[in-house]
Write a structure and sequence with these properties.
Elements (H helix, E strand, L loop, with lengths): L25 E14 L7 E14 L3 E5 L6 H8 L7 E8 L2 E4 L5 H10 E4 L13 H12 L4 H14 L16 H13 L5 E5 L7 H18 L2 E6 L2 H7 L2 E6 L2 E7 H6 L4 H9 L5 H6 L30 H5 L5 E4 L2 E3 L5
Parallel strand pairs: 3-8, 3-9, 6-7, 7-8
Antiparallel strand pairs: 1-2, 1-4, 4-5, 9-10, 10-12, 11-12
Helix pairs in contact: 4-5, 5-6
The chain binds adenosine-5'-triphosphate and magnesium ion (MG).
């Protein structure tokens, strides 16, 4: 199997962004999604956490889109809302199945089960909720059978197929979960979702607990699935360097909003939003020569709590370039160059 390993300790940046198998056929559309959590419902002082605050995104078949942002920016909540694990406060999630648009929010019963199979999620630690004393085979068999795949040979065939897709020898199915290495666990985590032949996989920080060399293996699997099987990925990471390795496009999220969206090479070589620039500056794996070209910008302070939403641009209290308009009006996400959108009054 072809293996591409990242240099130890770093993720190479600067090479051309991957195209993936992306076409123009839209498979997932997120329309003005809001997810607000209400805390302290009983107490008088109730606070609203605007975890996702008006996100719209379209993902093409076979595309890998990286969603990047600091901790608490709302990445996981967005991913969970897309697959229906969190109920949106407003907005729609539309998935295209066999050419027909389906609204996830409106689906019930069998229709819901069918759509849900098309949308899968892989977490940072895929087995945190699974009995470590279970055999790998059972960890794959049980979800498959509960989905309705009957017959031992059909189940065995599917399991053998997904083991091949994640590059693991078939005998690993006889191991117990606790015997797996970190890299193997994540491969099995991906195998578990490939069982359903999903069209979209939300990969939520799938490599952040792995060593650099193992990261490369997992990113390879993701890239191959996108190219060869047309699987679309929303790849969630807080690391710009990792975002760049696999993605065709990168979306930068700040306090529930997309502040910049564009082709990975455009975002890395010509970042526009001060927050994107600061994130690139802060990323240890970004090539120093590239950092030199980004005007040295220092953002102020910590990420605001998502309960504190400043008026105007949410980034204004931390932004060294903030003007009066930034404190008064929220900037819309608008295209300033072909395929490159930014929400910032500087443009
Ligand atoms: N179930 C919930 N109830 C209340 N608040 C929540 C809930 N889930 C998430 N939040 C809040 O929503 C905000 C966004 O959280 P989220 O986990 O989506 O961020 P994230 O970008 O994935 O962060 P990280 O990089 O740490 O994983 C945070 O302020 C978090 O505390
Ligand atoms: Mg998260």
């Amino acid at each position: 199997m072809e293996e591409k390993r990242l240099p130890a300790g770093s993720t190479e940046i600067g090479a051309q962004a991957k195209g993936g198998g992306a076409g123009t056929e839209i498979v997932l559309r997120i329309e003005d999604l809001h997810v607000h959590f209400v805390k302290n419902k009983i107490l008088e002082k109730r606070t609203v956490v605007k975890a996702v605050d008006g996100v719209s995104l379209e993902l093409a078949k076979g595309e890998i889109l990286s969603l990047v942002g600091e901790s608490g920016s709302g990445k996981t909540t967005l991913g969970r809302a897309v697959i229906g694990l969190v109920r949106p406060s407003s907005g729609r999630i539309v998935i295209v199945v066999d050419g027909a648009e389906r609204d996830i929010g409106g689906a019930r019963g069998k229709e819901w089960k069918r759509l849900r199979a098309h949308l899968q999620i892989v977490f940072q630690d895929p087995f945190s909720s699974i009995d470590p004393n279970m055999r790998v085979y059972d960890a794959l068999r049980i979800p498959l059978q509960s989905y309705g795949v009957k017959g031992q040979s059909a189940v065995a065939k599917k399991i053998s197929d997904v083991m091949r897709r994640v590059g693991l020898p078939e005998q690993v199915v006889n191991n117990y979960i606790f015997q797996l290495s970190g890299g193997q666990r994540q491969r099995i985590g991906i195998a578990r979702v490939l069982l359903f032949d999903p069209s979209v996989i939300i990969a939520d920080e799938p490599v952040s607990m792995l060593d650099a060399s193992l990261k490369g293996d997992i990113l390879n699997i993701i890239e191959r699935e996108s190219k060869e099987n047309g699987v679309t990925f929303l790849f969630i990471t807080h690391d710009m360097a990792v975002a760049k390795v696999v993605a065709r496009r990168i979306a930068v999220m700040y306090l529930g909003k997309i502040v910049e969206l564009g082709l990975a090479e455009d975002l890395l070589f010509d970042p526009l939003h001060p927050y994107t620039k600061a994130m690139l500056q802060a990323s240890p794996a970004i090539d120093p020569s590239m950092k030199e070209r980004i005007k040295n910008i220092n953002i102020i302070g910590e990420l605001a709590k998502s309960t504190d939403h400043p008026s105007g641009c949410k980034f204004n209290p931390r932004c060294p370039f903030a003007m009066d308009v930034c404190r008064e009006k929220e900037p819309p996400l608008k295209e300033v160059k072909a395929g490159h959108q930014v929400a910032c009054w500087l443009y």
